[in-house]
Design goal:
The structure is a single chain. By secondary structure, the protein is α+β, with helices and mostly antiparallel strands. Helix content is 23%, strand content 47%. Strands 2, 3, 4, 5, 6, 7, 8 and 9 form an eight-stranded antiparallel sheet that branches. The radius of gyration is 34 Å and the shape is rod-shaped.
Length: 492
C-alpha cells in the first residue's frame, strides 16, 4: 500500500476534540481530523494505495509437477502483473495503540504468461508450449497498525503490525490443455497467492519507511520573511479517540534564527470541537498568543514604522495647509514640505473575543519639516486606535482586515507651542483612514500559513471565534501529487 496520504494528513492537520486537554501546554496551534476527515483520508489512502499496486509485476514463479501417465512437467509463470483491484469494504479505526486500517473483501485481477516443457519415457521428444492466463483473486484482506509519537518536536511513525491475506483465486488459461489448468491450480495456487501477499506487504513496509523519513525531514521552524519565523515543532503526543485524532504544534512566532525557546504567555487549557453544527473534516484552532507573538516579534525588529511623504491630498504635506490649524508652524516654516514619521510605540494588544479579534494600537506620528535638505521634527501626536480584525482564509493562509472602531489623539510633545488638537484630529483621521489602515491591511492580507500540506487546500472554510481561540472549520480537497516531491510539506 501507499499509506503516506492518511498519515501526512494526520500529522499536519492539527487538533480539535471536544474537551481535549492540549497535548502540551505550549501548543498554541492545534487541530483535529474528525470522523468525516478520517473517512476522506481513508478513501484517499486506498485510492492512492491501489494506484501504487496496479501494474506491479510479481517475481517469476517456477515449479514442476508429476502428470499421471505423462511424466514430469516443468511450468514457469512470468510477467505476473496486477491489473486492477476492487475494494468492497474498508475501515480506519483509532485507539490508544495507534491507527488501524483494514481493507476486506477486495478482489484483484492478474495477467501472466505461462510456458511448460514436458518429457517422459513415453515421449522421447520433449513437448513445450506457452500462452497467457488471467487470475482472479477473491476475498483479499489488507491491514496495518501504526503508532505515531512525538520525539523532541518530531513525529516518529512505527509500523506495529501489517499483512495481506488472499482468500481464493481462479485461473483462466488462454491455450493449453485441461490437464495444464489443473496443474496450475494444484501446484501454483499457493505460489501466486503468496506472491500477491508478499508484494502488497512489501509496499506497506516501503510506504511507512518513506513516510517516517518524511516526518523526520519536516522543519521545526519556517521562515516567513526576513524578520520572523514560525515555530512548527510538535508538542506532546497525538491524542487519539475512537473518532478523531488530535495533534498540536508550538505555533508561536520568533525572530528569524532565534533559538526555539518557549515564550512566557498564559496558556489555554481546553478548546471545543463544535463547528456550529457544521460537519467538517478538520478544525484548526489558533490561540490569540500566536498573534501576540507576531506583534512582539515585528515590534522588536523595528518593522512597525512608516515614513509618509506622499498622500492622496498632497497639500496636507505642506506647512501652508496648516497655517490656520497651527499658525506658528506656518510662521516658522512658511511653505515648506513635510513628512509624517509614523511608528507604533508599543506592541499592539490583540485579544480574541466571541465576535471577532480586537486590536488596540498605540501610534506616534512625528511631524517633520523638510527645510534645505534637513529633516526637522517639530511635534509628535500620539494616537490610540481601537480596531476589529475580521479573519479570512486566503488560499491556505489565515489573513484578515482591520476595521476602525474609534481613535483618540493627544499631543505628546511640541517644539512649536501648544496645538489645537480638535482641529488636528480631522487631519489625523484622514491620515489614519487613507494611509495607516490601508498600509496595515496590505501587510495583514499576506497572512500566516496554516499547517496543511502542499497538494491539499481548504474548502468551504468557516471561521468561529471561541475566546481565546480562532477556529477554522473546513473540508479539504486533494489537488494532486505535488506533495510527493516536497521535503518540506508546510511550505507553499
Amino acid at each position: 500500500m501507499a499509506p503516506s496520504i492518511v498519515f501526512i494528513l494526520l500529522s499536519t492537520l492539527l487538533r480539535v476534540t471536544s474537551g481535549y486537554v492540549l497535548p502540551n501546554e505550549e501548543g498554541f496551534i492545534s487541530g483535529v481530523i474528525s470522523d468525516k476527515g478520517l473517512d476522506y483520508a481513508k478513501d484517499l489512502l486506498i485510492e492512492k494505495g491501489i494506484a501504487s499496486i496496479v501494474l506491479l509485476q510479481l517475481p517469476e514463479i517456477e515449479n514442476s509437477a508429476q502428470v499421471p501417465f505423462v511424466g514430469n512437467a516443468k511450468v514457469v509463470l512470468s510477467n505476473i502483473t496486477i491489473k486492477d483491484i476492487q475494494v468492497n469494504s474498508s475501515s480506519l479505526r483509532t485507539g490508544e495503540n495507534g491507527f488501524v486500517l483494514v481493507v476486506s473483501g477486495a478482489t484483484a485481477n492478474l495477467s501472466m504468461r505461462w510456458r511448460y516443457s514436458l518429457s517422459s519415457w513415453l515421449i522421447p521428444i520433449g513437448i513445450s508450449d506457452s500462452g497467457t492466463a488471467s487470475v482472479k483473486v477473491k476475498g483479499m484482506q489488507v491491514g496495518l497498525t501504526v503508532n505515531l509519537r512525538n520525539q523532541e518536536g518530531t513525529l516518529n511513525l512505527t509500523l506495529l503490525d501489517y499483512g495481506c491475506y488472499v482468500g481464493d483465486l481462479s485461473i483462466k488459461l488462454d491455450g493449453g490443455a485441461s490437464w495444464l489448468y489443473q496443474l496450475l491450480v494444484d501446484a501454483f495456487e499457493g505460489n501466486i497467492a503468496s506472491a500477491v501477499e508478499e508484494a502488497i506487504s512489501e509496499k506497506i513496509r516501503e510506504g511507512i519507511t518513506k513516510l517516517d523519513n518524511l516526518l523526520h525531514s519536516l522543519p521545526k521552524q519556517i521562515s516567513l520573511d526576513k524578520t520572523a519565523a514560525l515555530n512548527v515543532s510538535f508538542v506532546g503526543n497525538p491524542v487519539l479517540s475512537n473518532s478523531s485524532i488530535a495533534i498540536a504544534i508550538n505555533g508561536l512566532l520568533t525572530a528569524r534564527n532565534e533559538a526555539l525557546v518557549p515564550q512566557s504567555y498564559q496558556k489555554g487549557l481546553k478548546i471545543s470541537s463544535a463547528c456550529g453544527g457544521l460537519p467538517k473534516m478538520i478544525k484548526i484552532s489558533i490561540h490569540e498568543n500566536v498573534f501576540k507573538s507576531a506583534s512582539l516579534v515585528y515590534y522588536n525588529a523595528g518593522k512597525m514604522q512608516l515614513i509618509i511623504d506622499e498622500l492622496p491630498d498632497q497639500n496636507i504635506l505642506n506647512t501652508a495647509e496648516w497655517r490656520f490649524i497651527v499658525p506658528q508652524l506656518y510662521k516658522r516654516y512658511p511653505n515648506d514640505d513635510m513628512q509624517l514619521n509614523i511608528s507604533v510605540s508599543s506592541p499592539p494588544f490583540i485579544q480574541v473575543t466571541y465576535q471577532d479579534v480586537g486590536a488596540t494600537i498605540f501610534v506616534d506620528i512625528t511631524i517633520d519639516v523638510l527645510e534645505d535638505g534637513e529633516v526637522i521634527p517639530v511635534a509628535c501626536i500620539s494616537m490610540e486606535i481601537s480596531a476589529s480584525f475580521a479573519v479570512e482564509i486566503i488560499g491556505n493562509n489565515i489573513a484578515g482586515r482591520l476595521r476602525l472602531q474609534k481613535f483618540s489623539t493627544y499631543l505628546k510633545w511640541s517644539k512649536i507651542g501648544k496645538l489645537h488638537m480638535r482641529l488636528i484630529q480631522s487631519l489625523m483621521s484622514s491620515v489614519l483612514k487613507t494611509v495607516i489602515l490601508p498600509y496595515l491591511n496590505f501587510k495583514l492580507m499576506r497572512g500566516l500559513p496554516l499547517p496543511i500540506i502542499d497538494g491539499f487546500s481548504f474548502q468551504n472554510a468557516n471561521i468561529l471565534y471561541i475566546h481565546p481561540w480562532i477556529a477554522v472549520c473546513s473540508d479539504v480537497s486533494f489537488l494532486g501529487d505535488y506533495y510527493l516531491s516536497q521535503q518540506s510539506p508546510y511550505l507553499s
